[in-house]
Write a structure and sequence with these properties.
single chain; mainly alpha; 15 helices
C-alpha cells in the first residue's frame, strides 16, 4: 500500500482494523468465550424471573447472530476506504508501480484452502452437525491436512488422501446411520459401516504420518507449545475470575450492581448505555478475556432481566453481539490494543506509532457506528438465529 502511494495512517489503520474482523466474524474465539458466559447469565436471569426450566444460549446462536453484523462492518470499512481512496488526499499517487501478476495456483493456496476450512467449521456448527468443540476438531484435522500438503510435492498426495477420507467420512456419517442397534442390519448399512471403517483407518494412519512429518519439520512442536500456553492462560484467568465473582456475590456485590443499574436514568437504555461505556473504557487497558470473565458475569444477568422499550424480554443473542462489537474495539484502542502491538512489530520503520494510533481512529468510530446500528435494529442480530434454529 505504501508503494501504491497510500498514506502510512490509512495503510496501518486498514490493516489493523481488518485484522480484528476475526473477532466478530465467526468462527471467533471471542464469541466462543462470550457464548459460555452469556449462557450462564441467561440461565441465572431466567431463574431469578421465576422460570425454573431455563432455555440455553449456544455458541452457534452467537455465530449466526454475528454473521450479518460482521458483514455490515466489512461493508462500512469498504465504503470508508473507497471514499477516502477516490476523494481523499490519501489516494494513490501517480508514482505508484503497477502490481505484479500472481499465478492462479498461488491464489488457490493462499485463499481458497483456508476458506474451505473456515466454511467446514462454520457449516458444521450452523448446520447443527457438530457442537463448537466437535467443530474445533474438524478445524484441527483440516489444519493438519493443509500443513502437510504445504510441506512439499511428496506430501501433497498424503494430504489430499486425508482430506478426501475426512470429507467422505463426514458425508457418510450424515447420510447413513452408522450406529445400528437392531438385530438385523441391512446390506446398505453394512456396506456403509465397512466403508466408514476403511475411511477411518485411512484417516488415522494418514494423520499419524502427517503428525510425524510436521514434528520432524519442527512445525508441530511450537504449535502445541503455543496452544498449551494460551489455553493455560485462559483457564488461569477463568479460575481467578470465577473466584472473584464468587466472593463478589457472597458479599452482596451483585445486589449493589443491580440497584446501581436500575437507578440509572433512562431505564433499560440508560443501564445498557452505562455498561457499554464501561466496557469501552476498560478496553483501553484490559484484554477482552479479562472483560469477558469479570465484567460480563456481573452485569449480564441484571441486564437480561430488564425489559425492552416495547415490554419484551431482552434477547441474549442481541446483547451478546453488542458485547462482541464493543469488545472488538479493545483490539484497536491505545495504549494497549493488541492489534496495535502486532502491527508495530511487523510494520516498516517508515510507519511510526503515531501513524498507527491515528490511523485506527476512523475504524474505531466505524465500529461504534455499527454498534449503534445493531442497537437500534436488533433484528440484524436476531433474525438469522431464529431463521436457522427456529
Amino acid at each position: 500500500m505504501l508503494k501504491q502511494g497510500y498514506s502510512p495512517r490509512l495503510a496501518s489503520g486498514a490493516i489493523a482494523a481488518s485484522g480484528t474482523l476475526g473477532q466478530i466474524i465467526p468462527p471467533s474465539i471471542v464469541l466462543v468465550i462470550l457464548g459460555d458466559q452469556l449462557s450462564n447469565a441467561w440461565q441465572k436471569a431466567q431463574l431469578a424471573s421465576g422460570n425454573f426450566s431455563p432455555d440455553t444460549v449456544s455458541v452457534g446462536d452467537l455465530f449466526a447472530g454475528a454473521l450479518i453484523p460482521g458483514l455490515i462492518l466489512v461493508l462500512f470499512y469498504m465504503i470508508y476506504l473507497l471514499v477516502v481512496g477516490l476523494f481523499g488526499k490519501q489516494a494513490a499517487t501517480g508514482n505508484s508501480k503497477a502490481p505484479g501478476t500472481v499465478s492462479f495456483t498461488k491464489i488457490v493456496q493462499a485463499l481458497v484452502t483456508p476458506l474451505v476450512l473456515i466454511i467446514a467449521v462454520m457449516g458444521a456448527i450452523l448446520g447443527g452437525l457438530a457442537t463448537p468443540t466437535e467443530a474445533a476438531s474438524v478445524g484441527a484435522v483440516g489444519a493438519i491436512v493443509l500443513a502437510t500438503a504445504r510441506l512439499g510435492a511428496s506430501w501433497r498426495l498424503l494430504g489430499l488422501a486425508c482430506g478426501l477420507a475426512f470429507i467422505s467420512l463426514l458425508v457418510l456419517a450424515n447420510l447413513t446411520d452408522l450406529r445400528p442397534m437392531r438385530a438385523q442390519i441391512g446390506n446398505s448399512e453394512a456396506a456403509a459401516i465397512i466403508a466408514a471403517v476403511l475411511l477411518l483407518v485411512l484417516l488415522v494412519s494418514g494423520l499419524g504420518a502427517s503428525g510425524i512429518a510436521l514434528f520432524r519439520a519442527d512445525i508441530l512442536r511450537p504449535v502445541l507449545a503455543t496452544t498449551t500456553r494460551i489455553t493455560t492462560m485462559i483457564f488461569l484467568i477463568l479460575i481467578g475470575a470465577s473466584i472473584f465473582s464468587l466472593v463478589f456475590r457472597g458479599l452482596g456485590g451483585d445486589d449493589s450492581i443491580r440497584a446501581l443499574l436500575q437507578s440509572l436514568p433512562g431505564g433499560t437504555f440508560g443501564a445498557l448505555l452505562g455498561v457499554m461505556a464501561l466496557m469501552f473504557f476498560l478496553g483501553f487497558f484490559l484484554d477482552f478475556l479479562e472483560i469477558t470473565f469479570v465484567v460480563v458475569p456481573l452485569v449480564a444477568p441484571v441486564l437480561l432481566q430488564l425489559p425492552m422499550a416495547d415490554g419484551s424480554a431482552m434477547s441474549p443473542v442481541w446483547l451478546g453481539i453488542l458485547f462482541a462489537i464493543n469488545l472488538q474495539t479493545s483490539f484497536l484502542t491505545p495504549p494497549f490494543g493488541v492489534a496495535l502491538f502486532y502491527l508495530r512489530g511487523v510494520a516498516p520503520a517508515t510507519i511510526t506509532s503515531r501513524d498507527i494510533y491515528l490511523g485506527v481512529i476512523p475504524f474505531v468510530l466505524i465500529q461504534l457506528l455499527v454498534l449503534a446500528v445493531i442497537w437500534n435494529i436488533p433484528a440484524l442480530a436476531t433474525w438469522l438465529p431464529e431463521f436457522i434454529y427456529g
